[in-house]
Amino acid sequence: MSSQIDHVFDETRVFPPSPEFAAAAVAQPEIYSEAATDREAFWAEQARELHWHTPFTQVLDWTTPPFAKWFADGELNVAYNCLDRHVEAGDGDRVALLWEGEPGDERRITYAELTDEVKRLANVLEGLGVGHGDRVAIYLPMIPEAVASMLAVARIGAIHSVVFGGFSADSLRSRIDDAGAKVVITADGGYRKGKASPLKPTVDQALADRGEGEQNTVEHVLVVKRCENEIDWDDERDVWYHDAVSAASDAHDAQAFPAENPLFILYTSGTTGKPKGILHTSGGYLTQASYTHRVVFDLKPETDVYWCTADIGWVTGHSYVAYGPLANGATQVMYEGTPETPQQGRWWDIIQKYGVTTLYTAPTAIRSFMKLGREIPQRYDLSSLRLLGSVGEPINPEAWIWYRDVIGGGSAPIVDTWWQTETGAIMASPLPGITATKPGSAQVALPGISIDVVDDDGNSVGVGGGGLLAITQPWPSMLRGIWGDPERFVETYWEKFATHGYYFAGDGARFDEDGDLWLLGRVDDVMNVSGHRLSTAEIESALVAHEATAEAAVVGASDETTGQAVVAFVIIKESYLKAHSPEGLALQLRGWVGEQIGPIARPRDVYIVGELPKTRSGKIMRRLLRDVAEGREVGDTTTLADTAVMSVISAQVK
C-alpha cells in the first residue's frame, strides 16, 4: 500500500510575532544555526543548564542503535534539579504550585515546602523498602501529592509508573503486574464533576484475585486522605500518607545516579493485550523536557504563571507539569477537576484569579469551549495571557483562530506542539518569538531535532507531498525501550526504516510549500477512498470551518463501491442551534466539504451527535466510531470519560 497521502486542504493565513515579543524572547533566531552547526555540542550546552553531580564527557553513544545513551558517564539527581538547587539559589520562597481543588480549596506551595515534602516522602519510601531500581505505581488525582510522589521516587533512584486515575481495576492491575511494582501510592478519592471519585477501592480490586490469584509484588499501599470517602483498610499493607510523611525526617541527601538510570515507565493509553510500557531515563529526558519548556513557552520564571492542563497520568503531565517546569523554577497552576465544574467558566475563572500568562491545553478542550460559545470566556479578564499552547492532536485552523482571538485577545502567539509519549518531549513547534505562525501547522522541528516526511522506502517526499513522519537522528529524551520487551521496541518503532536508522512515529504528515510541517493524523486513521488516501484530520478541519460546527470526528467505513467511504460525526455549536434549525444540516455539511476540499472527500454520511467518545485525556476514540459506522458491535469502552456516550451515538445513528 502506498504511503502517499493526498493533500487536499490549504491554509494561507500567517501571524508573525510582535516586535516587542520577538525582542524579549528567550529563543533568538541564531538558535537554529547553533544547533545545525554542531548538534551534539548544542545538546551538551542544554544539558549543562542542569546540575550534574558528576559532569559528563560523552554526549551521545549511538554504537548499538536503536539503543541510545545520552550523557552516559555523567551523574545527576532529577529531584535535586527540580527542587533543592532552586532553594539553594535563594528561590525557596518562590511558589512552585498554585493548586486549586475542584470544590474550591486551594494551596500555595513554595519550592522550599515542596522540597521538604519530597525529602520526607523519600524517607518514607525507603522505610517501606523501596530502593534504587524498584518500581512504584502512582494512582492519584491532580493533587500536589502526585507531583511530590513522582519526585520522591526519582530522588531515591527508583522508577515510577503513573497510572491515570480514570483507569479501571483491570487496567491498573495489568500495569502493576507488568512493572512489578513494590508500592502503590493512591488516595481515598479525588473530586470529579462535583463528587468524590473513589480511587483506593479500585486499587483494592486491582490487588485482589482477578482470576489468576492475588497480586504478589505490592508490599504496601500509601494512601492520601483527600475526599474522606469510606474505604476498606488492611493494617498490614496500607499506610496513611500524611501520618507517615509528617512523622518522617526532613533530612535527605539527594544521591547522584547515572544519566541513563531509568526514571519512569509510562503505559501508552488505548493499548490492547499486553501493556506497552514506554521507558524513559534521567539525564537526556530532563535535558530535553527543561530545554523545550524554556524555549517553546518562552519561560520567564520570575514573572510567568504557567498552566498545563494535562493530568500527570499522561506524558504531557510528566514533562510539562512535573519535570520541565520545576527543573526551570517555574510557578505553575495545578487544577484537580473538570473544566465545567461547578460552572462552565471554571478554567477562565482560574486564569483570571491567578494571572495565568501561559496556557497549554488540548484541541479537544478548545473545541468544547467553542461549542459552548465565546460569551462564556468573554465574561472573564484573560488579559494576563501572553502565550497559548496546543498539544495532543493536530489542531484544526478554525479552532486555532478561535483560541487566538477569543482566549488570546487576538495577539497571544500559539505554539502548536507535536510529540509523543515515546519522544518524551516536544519535537516540532513554532518558537513564539521567531516563527510566523500558521493556523493548524506544527511548523518546524525544534533546534537539535531532525525530522522528515518520507515514503514507504524511507525516501524524502519533499515539499507538497504527504507521507510518513520519521525522526532521522537520535534525540536526548527518546524512549530507551519497552519495559521488559526489547524486541517489541525494535519491531514497533525501528523496523520499518531499519536500513536508514529512522524512528517511525506512526503519523502521517506533509511539508507545505514553505517547508512547514502539517500532521495528518495517525496512519491508521488515513482512509482509502477510490484509490485516494485521505487524511481524517483535513476533512475534520473542513467540517469545523463551517459556522455550525463545534467539533467533528471522521472515520473510514467499508464501502462496496469506493473501498472506503468517509463517515462524519459532528457536534453543533449551541449558538448556532439557538438561531437555526438543524434540519437539513447534515446534507449541507456534505456539500460544504465537497466545496472546501473536493467531491472525493464528501462524506457518505454525516451524523449530528451531542457528544463524541473521548478518553479522559481528551483523545477521540475513532475505532469506536468506526464500529458504529460499519454496523458492528461497539468494542471496549472502559477508557472513555463517559461510557454511556456510545449507546447514545449508536441510537442516533440507527
Automatic annotation (TrEMBL):
<dbReference type="GO" id="GO:0019427">
    <property type="term" value="P:acetyl-CoA biosynthetic process from acetate"/>
</dbReference>
<feature type="binding site">
    <location>
        <begin position="192"/>
        <end position="195"/>
    </location>
    <ligand>
        <name>CoA</name>
    </ligand>
</feature>
<feature type="binding site">
    <location>
        <position position="522"/>
    </location>
    <ligand>
        <name>ATP</name>
    </ligand>
</feature>
<dbReference type="GO" id="GO:0046872">
    <property type="term" value="F:metal ion binding"/>
</dbReference>
<dbReference type="InterPro" id="IPR025110">
    <property type="entry name" value="AMP-bd_C"/>
</dbReference>
<protein>
    <recommendedName>
        <fullName>Acetyl-coenzyme A synthetase</fullName>
        <ecNumber>6.2.1.1</ecNumber>
    </recommendedName>
</protein>
<keyword id="KW-0547">Nucleotide-binding</keyword>
<dbReference type="GO" id="GO:0005829">
    <property type="term" value="C:cytosol"/>
</dbReference>
<feature type="binding site">
    <location>
        <position position="507"/>
    </location>
    <ligand>
        <name>ATP</name>
    </ligand>
</feature>
<dbReference type="InterPro" id="IPR020845">
    <property type="entry name" value="AMP-binding_CS"/>
</dbReference>
<keyword id="KW-0436">Ligase</keyword>
<feature type="binding site">
    <location>
        <begin position="392"/>
        <end position="394"/>
    </location>
    <ligand>
        <name>ATP</name>
    </ligand>
</feature>
<feature type="domain" description="Acetyl-coenzyme A synthetase N-terminal">
    <location>
        <begin position="30"/>
        <end position="82"/>
    </location>
</feature>
<feature type="binding site">
    <location>
        <position position="530"/>
    </location>
    <ligand>
        <name>CoA</name>
    </ligand>
</feature>
<comment type="function">
    <text>Catalyzes the conversion of acetate into acetyl-CoA (AcCoA), an essential intermediate at the junction of anabolic and catabolic pathways. AcsA undergoes a two-step reaction. In the first half reaction, AcsA combines acetate with ATP to form acetyl-adenylate (AcAMP) intermediate. In the second half reaction, it can then transfer the acetyl group from AcAMP to the sulfhydryl group of CoA, forming the product AcCoA.</text>
</comment>
<dbReference type="Pfam" id="PF00501">
    <property type="entry name" value="AMP-binding"/>
</dbReference>
<dbReference type="Pfam" id="PF13193">
    <property type="entry name" value="AMP-binding_C"/>
</dbReference>
<feature type="binding site">
    <location>
        <position position="316"/>
    </location>
    <ligand>
        <name>CoA</name>
    </ligand>
</feature>
<dbReference type="InterPro" id="IPR042099">
    <property type="entry name" value="ANL_N_sf"/>
</dbReference>
<keyword id="KW-0067">ATP-binding</keyword>
<dbReference type="Pfam" id="PF16177">
    <property type="entry name" value="ACAS_N"/>
</dbReference>
<comment type="similarity">
    <text>Belongs to the ATP-dependent AMP-binding enzyme family.</text>
</comment>
<feature type="binding site">
    <location>
        <position position="544"/>
    </location>
    <ligand>
        <name>Mg(2+)</name>
    </ligand>
</feature>
<dbReference type="InterPro" id="IPR045851">
    <property type="entry name" value="AMP-bd_C_sf"/>
</dbReference>
<dbReference type="InterPro" id="IPR032387">
    <property type="entry name" value="ACAS_N"/>
</dbReference>
<feature type="binding site">
    <location>
        <begin position="416"/>
        <end position="421"/>
    </location>
    <ligand>
        <name>ATP</name>
    </ligand>
</feature>
<dbReference type="GO" id="GO:0003987">
    <property type="term" value="F:acetate-CoA ligase activity"/>
</dbReference>
<keyword id="KW-0460">Magnesium</keyword>
<dbReference type="InterPro" id="IPR011904">
    <property type="entry name" value="Ac_CoA_lig"/>
</dbReference>
<feature type="modified residue" description="N6-acetyllysine">
    <location>
        <position position="619"/>
    </location>
</feature>
<feature type="domain" description="AMP-binding enzyme C-terminal">
    <location>
        <begin position="538"/>
        <end position="619"/>
    </location>
</feature>
<feature type="binding site">
    <location>
        <position position="533"/>
    </location>
    <ligand>
        <name>ATP</name>
    </ligand>
</feature>
<keyword id="KW-0007">Acetylation</keyword>
<feature type="binding site">
    <location>
        <position position="546"/>
    </location>
    <ligand>
        <name>Mg(2+)</name>
    </ligand>
</feature>
<keyword id="KW-0479">Metal-binding</keyword>
<dbReference type="InterPro" id="IPR000873">
    <property type="entry name" value="AMP-dep_synth/lig_dom"/>
</dbReference>
<dbReference type="GO" id="GO:0016208">
    <property type="term" value="F:AMP binding"/>
</dbReference>
<feature type="domain" description="AMP-dependent synthetase/ligase">
    <location>
        <begin position="89"/>
        <end position="483"/>
    </location>
</feature>
<dbReference type="GO" id="GO:0005524">
    <property type="term" value="F:ATP binding"/>
</dbReference>
